[in-house]
């Protein structure tokens, strides 16, 4: 435990739950933080929180990448932000091992941090399957770097198709395969297809009909969160745009840049985007805290780790009972869990922070209870589906609801104003269709120049 009569709260993760919990603790424990009797330490590999619902729009160029992220140090001035990764947790001793950037540079090893209260909110990581070739050619869609990299990649494929006379290369460049029919896959495909269809008007030898966009989903429907009816509408909308939606189909292989599907189809492609689900962060398995069958932390409705003192969790990492759901028919059956989505994560973070503050002050804790309000999804510019409080929306109203909801949820007034300004400018002017793929290797030009210089000197 920490010393000198200072209560130290360690928050592992700076995503939805981590950042919002620390933000709420800043407000609830303002006096204690000012007096130095409480410390809040936030550990995350990145110095920012990514607002993931805006990744598809960032990929399409509707929002600048820097406005999709929230700098942790700016919004958490009363907390200590440590850029690093928690590699081990000994909760019996209440100590965490953290590998920082400095430790990697100096080789002095990791640092150890003692804590009194632990908040485990590392989020989730992409869940991959042992599909041959996937590790070599697959592109994820979970970080802002992946979103912008995918945008540059798609635009680069249009340049390749426009500049080659080889029909096989051209066909592969203009074939885009997305695996996974959840939010990430559907919204990323819809936004990028919208962008690419707009971009090809500036190519003299590429037409929108030349492109193939394929969505592969293993189950019988897409966007299950918006309900069956809106899911079917989304399929009709995508197919109406000549997007090939393959339900009850799996990716069998993608070796040598050929996507082979379980229905026997083969698609030579240079673009394979994998959004087929997530899994708990590996750090959870290294904590010796109680996990359920899916690897999530078992939690009580008060967001404590079940049966463990001084340990808390919420969001993707936690299995939290849903108190608003219908109780199970049999007494020995477990209660349904809260869905691992942003709607629950944001509200759970608030309750979690208030419960920690209550424990520190000797007050009773409260249970998390929230009736699921519904879901919204974008299907490209001015198109969407929504199922909110029993009301079903589609088309422009759903798209507007999608933007309004997420604008209200993105943290800080600064970010809200910047996103709104960018949407306004995007509505007044034409889309940007420039690929900045060279940003991913900024030293390439200098290395080429330096190498040429050395070569010339040798001659």
Structural description of this entry:
- Belongs to the NADH dehydrogenase family.
- By secondary structure, this protein is an alpha/beta fold.
- Helices cover 35% and strands 22% of the residues.
- The chain contains 14 helices and 24 strands.
- The strands form seven sheets. A seven-stranded mixed β-sheet has the order 7-6-5-2-1-8-20.
- Strand 12, helix 10 (228-240) and strand 13 form a beta-alpha-beta unit.
- The N and C termini lie far apart (65 Å).
N- to C-terminal separation?
Answer: 65 Å
Structure summary, number of beta strands:
24
Structural class: alpha/beta
Strand content: 15-25%
Work out the helix count.
14
Low-confidence stretches: 453-459
* Helical content (DSSP H or I, runs of 4+): 25-40%
Cross-sheet strand order for the largest sheet: 7-6-5-2-1-8-20
CATH architectural label of the largest domain = 3-Layer(bba) Sandwich
Mean pLDDT, rounded to whole units?
Answer: 89
At the first level of CATH, the class of the largest domain is Alpha Beta
As for the number of domains, it is 2
Give the overall silhouette: globular
- CATH superfamily grouping of the largest domain: FAD/NAD(P)-binding domain
Rg, rounded, reads: 24 Å
- Major β-sheet annotation: 7 strands, mixed
InterPro entries: FAD/NAD-bd_sf (IPR036188), FAD/NAD-binding_dom (IPR023753), NDH-2 (IPR045024)
GO molecular function: NADH dehydrogenase activity
Family: Belongs to the NADH dehydrogenase family.
Keywords: FAD, Flavoprotein, NAD, Oxidoreductase
